[in-house]
Amino acid sequence: MKMKIIGAIILSLLAVTQSRADLNGHFSSLYSAFGDHSTTDVTILSGPYDDPLGRGGTGDQWTATDGVYQFKMSIEHSSEFNLSIDTLIGRIEELPGPYIRALAEVSDPNEDGIAIYYDLGGAAAHGGKSYINMIPGAGSLIIAHEAGHTLEQVATQDDPTIPLQWQAAIASDNISVSGYGNGSWWEDAAEFSKIYALCLDGSQRPIVPMFGGLTPLEELHRLSPERFDLWESMLYPAPEPSNPRFQITAIDYSPTDNMLTLTWDSIPGEVYAINYSSDLVSWEGNLDDAIDAASDAAETSRSFDLASLGLENREKLFFRVEKQ
Ligand SMILES: [Zn+2]
């Protein structure tokens, strides 16, 4: 009897020692307030509409934006659970802004965005370059893990050496991210994505929790510098060099005469088209598809009479400038 009790105590001490030796244990104090001070703010653009889901069946689907990225959210039609879209949005809003890019990556045509299913065959979630699927109970840090799979696979598509680089990064500092991450290099990367999200969130709180004088991000960089730099290169990909700053810089609309004036960054010699959509999903047509850039300025402006185009009574209209 006595021996058994001593055995149990030793085992539990071992468990504590092991969890402290990995990054997950090292930053465990950051878990409880994760997302409490996040500034991510999600707005629904359209939906719900019925949509066939990638794993079969149908669901309600919405399109949404955080102001930077546009993405979809899907909830399976099922009598087995009832998850409100507000609950799902609340979980997404706990994530640091850069992670929302992963949701955009899985929202291409025929993809479901972040999708909630009653049953994933025993798993809590799956992530890849074209899907993030989760069960109704999966929270924001599980999204951060799956976003790791998504962004790693997107990066590997562009640079097939990423898997080798990640394995070299693991070998360089000989530290474990988490017990689960020890199973394979890609789970190690996904777990690192989760820990980075935790540290980014911690470093942005009003009172930053410090680790020996370092912010959580600085401490994570100190402990695993090569993983840290490689992960940041996947989370914040460099803008394409052929695509310098290109955005709509002014929109003026006068409801009295239905005149719309758009101004955008342009390059002399280029030709632009302006498309319109009422839901950012289907682009119905264009206002003009052959607009020459101003020859003597870094911006071009054009005015359109929406009434003459039959667009005067729309409740909502979005515009997209495309370089031809
Ligand atoms: Zn995983």
The gist of it:
The chain is built from 9 helices and 12 strands. It is of the alpha+beta class. The chain is globular.
Explain what the structure shows.
With 324 residues, this protein is an alpha+beta fold. It has helices at residues 2-20, 23-26, 85-92, 100-105, 140-158, 162-173, 185-203, 216-223, 225-235; strands spanning 43-52, 58-65, 70-76, 114-116, 125-128, 131-134, 248-254, 259-265, 271-277, 285-292, 299-305, 318-323. Bound molecules: zinc ion (ZN). Zinc ion binds next to α5 and α7.
Radius of gyration of CA atoms, rounded to a whole number: 24 Å
Number of domains: 2
The ordered H/E elements are: HHEEEHHEEEHHHHHEEEEEE
Strand line-up across the major sheet: 1-2-3-4-6-5
Q: Tell me which ligands are bound.
A: zinc ion
Structural class: alpha+beta
Number of strands: 12
Instruction: Estimate the global geometry from the Cα principal axes.
Output: globular
Mean model confidence by pLDDT? 90
N-to-C CA distance: 80 Å
| CATH topology name of the largest domain | Collagenase (Catalytic Domain)
Count helical runs. Answer: 9
Please report the first level of CATH classification, the CATH class of the largest domain.
Alpha Beta
Helix fraction by DSSP (H/I, runs of at least 4): 25-40%
What labels describe this entry?
alpha+beta; Immunoglobulin-like; Collagenase (Catalytic Domain); 2 domains; binds zinc ion
List the helices and strands and how they pair.
Elements: H1 2-20, H2 23-26, E1 43-52, E2 58-65, E3 70-76, H3 85-92, H4 100-105, E4 114-116, E5 125-128, E6 131-134, H5 140-158, H6 162-173, H7 185-203, H8 216-223, H9 225-235, E7 248-254, E8 259-265, E9 271-277, E10 285-292, E11 299-305, E12 318-323
Parallel strand pairs: 3-4, 4-6
Antiparallel strand pairs: 1-2, 2-3, 5-6, 7-8, 8-11, 9-10, 9-12
Helix pairs in contact: 5-7, 6-7, 6-9, 8-9
Zinc ion (ZN) binds near residues 145, 149 and 187.
